[in-house]
Design brief:
The chain is α+β, with helices and mostly antiparallel strands and 342 residues long. The protein has eight helices and 22 strands. It folds into three domains: 10-66 and 102-130; 134-261, Jelly Rolls; 269-341, Phage tail protein beta-alpha-beta fold (3-Layer(bab) Sandwich), CATH 3.55.50.
Length: 342
Amino acid sequence: MTSNNLQPDKAQREAIEAEAARLVVLLESSTDPADRDAAHRWIASHPYHAVAYASAADIWKKGERIRLRGDKQGLSEEGSIADGGEAPIQANGVPAARAPVLSRRAVTTAMLSAAASAVAGVGIARHFSLFGDHRITKKGQREIARLTDGSSISMNGDTSLDVLMDGDSRKVRLLRGEAMFDIARDEKRPFFVDLGDSEITVLGTKFNIRRKEGVTELAVTEGVVLVTNAGAAPVKVHAGSSALIQPGIATTLIQDHALVQQRVAWTEGFLEFEEKPLDEVVEEFNRYRTNPLVIGDPRIAGTLITGRFGLGESDEFVLALESSFDIRATKGGNGSIVLQAN
């Protein structure tokens, strides 16, 4: 809407502030990575976008605590006047008869106008403290995110997450991909990992989470975590165990230390397989390749593979396939390597 070198005019500012408010409300409930990535691109496209979003998000965050000075009547959930309200409070040292509460539904409507006045005087840096903890890695890229509480998150390739830290809570929204969490213990502030339909709660521990289509894989290497899954009973997962988390289905516990080690091997730069079907092994290697491996013959898809390879050793893996199995590799389109039976 605006050039990075131009100050938006009044009409543009109003449009920007309305869009910022809309995005805050959308991202409060959406777990779609596409929504979040689109929002981040919009915010980064102009400094005023960042300012407007920071202001709107701040209004939303404070929504449940907003108190409006008034009479003995309060705002209902619909925002209309209703009898009752809360007990009298002090406002600027002067007793107030009642302190109506502005609900989040009312805040949603009020944000569009409130953002305009709140933006004035807000520094661009506020964006980074509130929303700048969005982390993303590209395919094949690994990165360590170090948090202010001493915790760290090792992110695998093609991973997207939000870090939300304040004085009362510690929370990460894992939107897609895979990450290894090393969480500093703080009994007053549990650490939450939001997976959309489920949530993981910890005090201090180490665990790995990988979000896949329709299922989330959890592996715990230290301590214990609590999995709260919508529609199912909470489940504790202890060190040396892993779990499969699916929306609305009881969490599946797997007591297999070797499986845990396989799932976290990527943090040391390796992939480990124990009688894994070839199609699953190829899928793992392709997470780190620019040009994919392709199974060109369904007859070899179920070939069982056992071994340990470096993340960047897919070419060596292909050579091992050709020497150990009745499989040949040929070059395909766009630089791909096609695996076929001899």
